[in-house]
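The pair is quoted verbatim underneath.

:::
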Amino acid sequence: MGDKEVKHRNPSVRSLLEILLVSTRLGLTSFGGPVAHLGYFHEEYIRRRKWMDEKSYADLVALCQFLPGPASSQVGIGIGVMRAGILGGIVSFLGFTLPSVLALILFALILQGLEIGEIGWIHGLKIVAVAVVAHAIWGMAEKLAPDLKRKAIVLLTLAVTLLWPTAYTQVGVILLSGLAGYLLYTQHQADDDAKLHFPVSRKFGTACLVLFFGLLVLLPIIREATSLHWIAMFDSFYRSGSLVFGGGHVVLPLLEREFVPVGWVSEEAFLAGYGAAQAVPGPLFTFAAYLGAVMNGWGGGLLATVAIFLPAFLLILGTLPFWDSLRRNSKVKGALMGVNAAVVGILISAFYQPIWTSSILAPVDFAFAAILFSMLAFWKLPPWVIVLTGAAGGAVIQYF
């Protein structure tokens, strides 16, 4: 990278302000999910501003696809760090994430005190969730499970997570699927020789990884020892953000099983918020802000946001210094192929329970879901149009 791209040691206020303005504009306009976000990033950061070269950007995207957590948010953090150091990464994250965080917290506060199950447009948002997740499954299955071996992993994962629906089951099948991919795809070749330069030392990266795993182990222990509600919340959101492979949609079953069975969030409120999250730009992980606000107002929303995104920060800063050697290992890529197939199975399981079983209650619901799915998949309408149509249609359906 040229000299222009290495102003990260001592970032100026001007460079940080530039990152904030650009990332905030992206946070206000980036609809369409993580793949679309990466396209927006490429257009703005690479083609227009040339903050990174094409190969470095491709390397960064590859790493973030490999890591658990919100891939598009991690790419944005990585670009900010390369541009202006760790402060640049924080500013980039805030700009891209805060618009949807604030919108979803406000939505949660508006819903407080309402009988959600009796509101027609809320039911419409739940049907939107059916269409959106079905579309995500379709696209991910085509890309991540194209051969019979990976289709078998998908089916086994689906069966196991439906029969034993716990967070520990999901972690187990992800690990076993990674092992299966490691064994089945030993000949998978790494074909990218580009080198990625990153302004973080291996010592600092190691410290971030130690903190990541330390919190993952210690938070449940502290939770049991103290019985403090905010510690329990932080632990649940942190663990969910740490164990999600495959992007925002896959966090749904983890969050649902953390908060709905224990009664912290009702199933109706959960699905209504998930539908509303489709209407806002930015990362789907900001759905956590909605859940936190449902439980504890503004403070809960901000706490949930910090907790669910903290693993993304620690992992991107911790792994980038080691990525060049790791990504060339063909067996590591094979393990990742198995994990990605398991993600599809987990998503199908979440599609059935709780999304389908709580949203499709009558033939008219199914017909409306099919219309929304067609608008999204075949007519290529933007997600916010689907959400508005779903809300309006739900208000009408209640009179049938």
Q: What stands out?
A: The mean pLDDT is 82. The longest helix spans residues 71-111. The radius of gyration is 21 Å.
